[in-house]
Amino acid sequence: MRALLAIDTAGMLGDDLFDQVSSREALDLRDRAFMVELVRGVLRYRATLDWRLGLLSDRRITKLPTLVQTILRLGAYQLLYLDRVPDSAAVNESVQMTKQQSRRLGRDWSGFVNAVLRALLRSPEPAWPDAGSDPVVALAVRYSCPAWLVERWCRRLGAERAEVLCRASVEAPPLTLRVNTLRTSRSALLADLAAAQVEANPTSVSEVGLQLSRSCAVIDLPGYAEGRFYVEDEAGQLIPLLLDVQPGQRALDACAAPGGKATHLAALMENQGEIVAVDRVSSRLDLVMANCRRLGVKILTPLAGDLRALVGAEIASHPMLSRPFDRILLDAPCSGLGVLRRHPEGKWYKTPESIAQHRRMQVELLAVTSRLLRPGGVLVYSACSIEPEETESIIDEFCQAHHQFQRESIAPWLPPAGLPFVTPRGDLSTMANSKRMDLFFAARVRRSE
């Protein structure tokens, strides 16, 4: 409950939130895992939970006090989606929690919570809203997606393709590892995992990925402390390949934290050359450097600041940016609508305006970072989004305004199994893939000699 209320206040799920709550409440590993399941589950299925609860209440769920909404959703999630929680326990814990919060609420809502949850237990599963009469409402309820996003996808892609995206947003993502080739090989790490009775299989597209059959505590896996792997979705593992970095080159990761792609670049460069990793928040660069130490990356230099401020009208104001780069990766801040299954809170705290806000930042960052590229150098722009305003149109407008940059097909630098994800324009798009990958976009441009 406290975690969900913190997310509601912040509008986002911070990476360290679960650790903070676990420490404050002195939770053991088992209880922490249960808390994570409850929080992510409620966020993932919130609209569906509200619909089911609303059928049984004479009050609109979203009009109730936030605390009561949260307790009802927690109880309903356990009743509808968790087989191992006894129904009586889910109801009783919800009622007791409501009683404990009565002073905060100004009245005792426990009778209401008890009545609604017990009605949910007794009621047969209702028919889903009819997709034929209103596909937006039907998809929004069935796959727990905000109506504005469903309407946007239906308008742009049609109801059938929109349903594929909606369904993907409620799927639990697999736990995927990127093998750190500075320390080991995929076959060796696979053998280490098998020896520890951890079931894993090679990813089908990335040639350095392993997908675990079930989630577990990452730090307990063999090879974690030795830096033999980094947790990263398979789609994200494809992005650094598109730069075709070579040992000895000078590369820039313009938005580096938490360091997954920067450390992958270092592995591709065989720890030879130089990588400058920029991020606006210095504390996030601390995480980058911690990952570098664990993974054995020795060629990365952190630089805190917003590139839009670090690069002036004509020249870079920081010495580290004064020499041109051979390769630049701009993994731009975006709406994150391609990774909703990993960040389900994004369904409820992002708005249509989020896309426009991020687009303005993406345009500015691309214009600034491109000035740091040497003639003949390569820049890759990527985003965990599938919205045209943040993807194709960004590159279209950039190339039209900067004639010294030419778009290049990413096909030569993808593993053969990745070729189906090359768009007619030569970009990378993993939208609606069947490989359980996140939804990413990437484009490659080269500066003329």
From TrEMBL:
For this protein, the record's Gene3D superfamilies field holds: NusB-like (1.10.940.10), Sun protein, domain 3 (3.30.70.1170), Vaccinia Virus protein VP39 (3.40.50.150)
Q: Where is the active site?
A: 384 (nucleophile)
Compartment(s) where it occurs, according to its Swiss-Prot or TrEMBL record: Cytoplasm
Q: Which ranges carry the SAM-dependent MTase RsmB/NOP-type domain? A: 165-448
Extract the InterPro entries matched here.
MeTrfase_RsmB-F_NOP2_cat, MeTrfase_RsmB-F_NOP2_dom, NusB-like_sf, NusB_RsmB_TIM44, RCMT, rRNA_ssu_MeTfrase_B, RsmB-like_ferredoxin, RsmB/NOL1/NOP2-like_CS
Catalyzed reactions: cytidine(967) in 16S rRNA + S-adenosyl-L-methionine = 5-methylcytidine(967) in 16S rRNA + S-adenosyl-L-homocysteine + H(+)
Keywords, sorted A to Z: Cytoplasm, Methyltransferase, RNA-binding, rRNA processing, S-adenosyl-L-methionine, Transferase
Q: Where is this protein primarily located?
A: cytoplasm
GO molecular function of the protein, one example?
Answer: RNA binding
What GO cellular component entries does it have? cytoplasm
Q: Which GO terms describe its biological process?
A: regulation of DNA-templated transcription
| Pfam families per the UniProt record, alphabetical | Methyltr_RsmB-F, NusB, RsmF-B_ferredox
What Enzyme Commission number(s) apply to this enzyme?
A: 2.1.1.176
Record-annotated residues binding S-adenosyl-L-methionine? 255-261, 279, 306, 331
Q: Among its keywords, does the record have rRNA processing?
A: yes
Q: What does this protein do?
A: Specifically methylates the cytosine at position 967 (m5C967) of 16S rRNA.
Q: Which family does it belong to?
A: Belongs to the class I-like SAM-binding methyltransferase superfamily. RsmB/NOP family.
Entries under NCBIfam families matching the protein: PRK14902.1, rsmB
Please report the name of this protein according to its UniProt entry: 16S rRNA (cytosine(967)-C(5))-methyltransferase
- Gene source species: Nitrospira defluvii
